[in-house]
Amino acid sequence: MGLRFLQGLGFETYYLMPYVIYMEVIPPERRALAVMLSFLAWTFGMCFSALVAWLVPNWTQLAIISIIPALLGFLYWRYLPESPRWLLAKGKVQQCADVLLRVSKGNGVTNLSRVEVEAQLQVMMLHLPVDQPLTTVKDYPKLRVRAVALIFMS
């Protein structure tokens, strides 16, 4: 029960963030396929979990079995690259260039130079919006209401 509670605490971050990061680095022409495959995997997983629930007689055993995919995903988490947008927003241009060069190599683009990528990232940094603290939510009533609604929905 405690493991299921811990799994539930980090559900949004744990399951949604890798999806968002992969959508950042997947080429636009392959994004639709990636989205369809992820939904297909989710559907098969839910069908499989119903089968497992039917086969396992005890709810505590089912809870232990259902935590296994989350543990495997947790082990995979460290291989997930940082978000290039987040790295750039935090001023980590060299790390952002590393991620982008690695992703571009995986996508078959090999004619990029590190100097060229870092120069483009420096230009992009000039046009980034200024970070605002979370406390600015109180200054915008509609945003405050939506934030509270999202907290309760999750």
TrEMBL record:
Membrane topology for this entry? Multi-pass membrane protein
The superkingdom listed in its UniProt entry is Eukaryota
Phosphoprotein listed as a keyword: no
Annotated signal sequence is none
PROSITE patterns attached here? MFS
GO cellular-component term (any): membrane
Keywords from UniProt, A to Z, are:
Membrane, Transmembrane, Transmembrane helix
Domain Major facilitator superfamily (MFS) profile as annotated: residue spans = 1-154
UniProt protein name: Solute carrier family 22 member 3
Q: Where are the transmembrane segments?
A: 32-56, 62-80
GO MF annotations for this entry? transmembrane transporter activity
Compartments where found: Membrane
